[in-house]
Design goal:
Blueprint lengths: L15 H12 L3 E5 L2 E4 H17 L7 E5 L4 H12 L3 E4 L6 H11 L3 E5 L7 H6 L11 E5 L9 E2 L2 E6 L18 E6 L9 E5 H14 L9 E3 L6 H13 L3 E3 L5 H11 L3 E5 H9 L12 E5 L5 H10 L4 E7 L3 E6 L6 H4 L3 E4 L7 E5 L13 E6 L6 E2 L3 H7 L6 E9 L5 E6 L4 E3 L2 E3 L1 H9 L4 E11 L2 E10 L7 H9 L10 E5 L4 E4 L2 E4 L1 H13 L3
Helix pairs in contact: 2-3, 6-7, 8-9, 9-10
Length: 543
């Protein structure tokens, strides 16, 4: 059986259907996906894609159309993406955690002509969400396709549109020509929307394919025994790019419909998984179930996004157990897995966000700009992170003003993040630009103060923001106590004073039960904007 090797890795391919065709031709009987107990070869998957593409054409989907897909991770999702790409249409991804107002907003702004969904999955009540979607939001829909439908439970109408069944296993064989183009929009992701309304990020076939090929090579997926556990939702850029990285390498992808820590640990051990990408919170739950060294013995790269303030501490502790945790960086605009920290770096540096870009040898360039003067900064100085790469997004759908604001005249994407360069060309993510604090003239990451407070006995979690106190920005902290612990503001401030400069010591410390969060495809993200508003309210009220 033939396999992809570094020497046979395709370099001139710029669409995902062409990449699939390459795999079919060179190693068609090799395993592409493992879904439960079912192994699907590249040749089997190609047949599924051809049938799906023909089904889409039969139901009126044309090149340039957008189809919204609201499914958990499953083969139908994958067949839909590649089928749409083959006929020159695009997928509008929908997070299964969306509530009615979010679903309505995305359907309305994307102007999707078809919605593909399932009417039930475990605790997800899709019909309940659909009931509260206003009719005007679905005005562009021509039809609704239902997966797992049968004559007894499929309503004839959803959102006022006729429903059709999409049953992948029963589709007839069909020969559908590949009319995909490198610059045709292939997939749209939503930005997180934690501080503003989500924008719809467009990626053409070219950026998706090039990024997948480069990450496959850069992150070790070409090793003959490499295997990926796809634990994150395909609907998010993090899960999607992870999946496509392994697919480009021609290595098996083990599919999880939804993440569960115990199940993930079992799958890693059973399938000898080498690569997993996800959030720090996700890996914490996996490691909790790694009850013996054998569970994660096969792992070579566990790349994580640092969504919780204690993520890097947890990752360093994991390395002490021999668990290979790597910090990385990405976004919907530059794609996930844009960069990963190098194994050669010391562990404390290896777990920081950022890293070396996968497209570094293909012209990707990073620069750091001073927030006040706009001057470009040398390595070691923190400022606004800007990225130019041929794998960047092409713009926000139907929003030229936001696109022009995000991409400058030189083609650099203004990420809205704070970072600094290293001498070797890699970089370190510091904070979101709105989260970084200018204290006494110095740019300070909240993580620096959070890490100190977290060392205080009894502290489970901490978030630090800056608010105006006496016409001066001062840090304040929100703290969650560990179970059974009692904390006081006086003790926490005293502990910080022994380590931090006076201007970094929080002016107030509030003990909380929980932090406000928002759900994304990649996990829960803490809403610092709401914490800042709450802090300012308390300070103004004298609390």
């Amino acid at each position: 059986m033939n396999h992809v090797t570094p020497d046979t890795m395709p370099t001139a391919i710029d669409t995902m259907p062409a990449l699939l065709a390459h795999h079919v031709q060179t190693h068609g009987d090799a395993i592409a996906f493992i879904d439960g107990e079912h192994a699907i070869s590249y040749r089997d998957f190609d047949r599924q894609v051809a049938r799906t593409a023909a089904w889409l054409v039969h139901h009126g989907v044309q090149p340039g159309d957008r189809v919204a897909v609201w499914l958990v991770n499953r083969m139908e999702w994958l067949a839909m993406y590649f089928g749409l790409a083959r006929i020159g249409a695009a997928m509008m991804t929908l997070n299964t955690r969306y509530r009615s107002h979010e679903l309505a907003d995305i359907l309305d702004r994307s102007q999707a002509g078809m919605l593909v969904l399932q009417l039930g999955f475990r605790k997800i009540d899709f019909p309940a969400v659909l009931r509260d979607v206003p009719p005007h939001a679905a005005r562009a829909l021509r039809s609704v396709a239902v997966v797992d439908a049968n004559e007894h439970d499929m309503s004839p109408h959803v959102l006022g549109r006729t429903t059709v069944a999409f049953t992948l296993a029963e589709l007839p064989d069909a020969a559908t020509p590949d009319v995909s183009r490198p610059d045709a929009t292939s997939i749209l992701f939503t930005t997180s929307g934690t501080t503003s309304a989500p924008k719809l990020v467009m990626h053409p076939q070219r950026t998706v394919t090039l990024h997948a090929l480069r990450t496959a090579r850069a992150y070790g997926l070409l090793a003959p025994d490499a295997r990926l556990l796809a634990a994150l939702p395909f609907s998010g850029v993090f899960g999607f790019n992870s999946l496509m990285c392994a697919f480009a390498a021609g290595r098996p992808v083990i599919v999880m419909d939804t993440f569960d820590g115990a199940e993930a640990a079992a799958l890693i051990q059973r399938h000898r998984i080498t690569h997993v990408f996800g959030s720090d919170e996700m890996f914490q739950r996996v490691i909790e179930h790694a009850t013996s060294p054998d569970v994660l013995a096969s792992a070579r790269m566990l790349g994580f996004g640092n969504f919780q303030s204690h993520g890097m501490d947890d990752a360093q502790a994991a390395w002490q157990r021999g668990i290979p945790m790597f910090g990385l960086y990405g976004s919907s605009e530059v794609q996930a897995l844009f960069s990963v920290q190098r194994i050669e770096a010391p562990v404390p540096e290896r777990v920081k966000g950022g890293g070396m870009p996968a497209s570094r040898d293909h012209g990707a360039h990073i620069r750091i700009r001073d927030l006040d003067s706009g001057a470009l900064l040398r390595p070691g100085a923190s400022g606004a992170l800007e990225i130019r790469a041929d794998t960047n997004f092409t713009g926000y759908l139907n929003d030229p003003e936001a696109t022009a604001k995000a991409i400058d005249e030189d083609g650099y994407f203004r990420t809205g993040d704070i970072a600094y360069l290293r001498d070797d060309g890699s970089f370190v993510y510091v904070a979101r630009q709105g989260d970084a604090m200018r204290l006494s003239g110095y740019l300070v990451s909240p993580a620096e103060i959070e890490n100190v407070i977290r060392q205080t006995p009894g502290v489970r979690e901490v978030q630090v923001v800056a608010v105006e106190i006496g016409k001066q920005l001062r840090p304040v902290a929100f703290v969650i106590a560990a179970a059974g612990s009692t904390l006081s503001e006086t003790e926490l401030k005293a502990a910080a004073q022994t380590v931090l400069a006076a201007f970094k010591v929080p002016a107030h410390v509030w003990i909380e039960d929980a932090f406000p969060t928002t759900q994304s495809a990649n996990g829960n993200k803490i809403q610092r904007a709401k914490l800042r508003a709450l802090a300012q309210q308390r300070v103004t009220a004298g609390g």
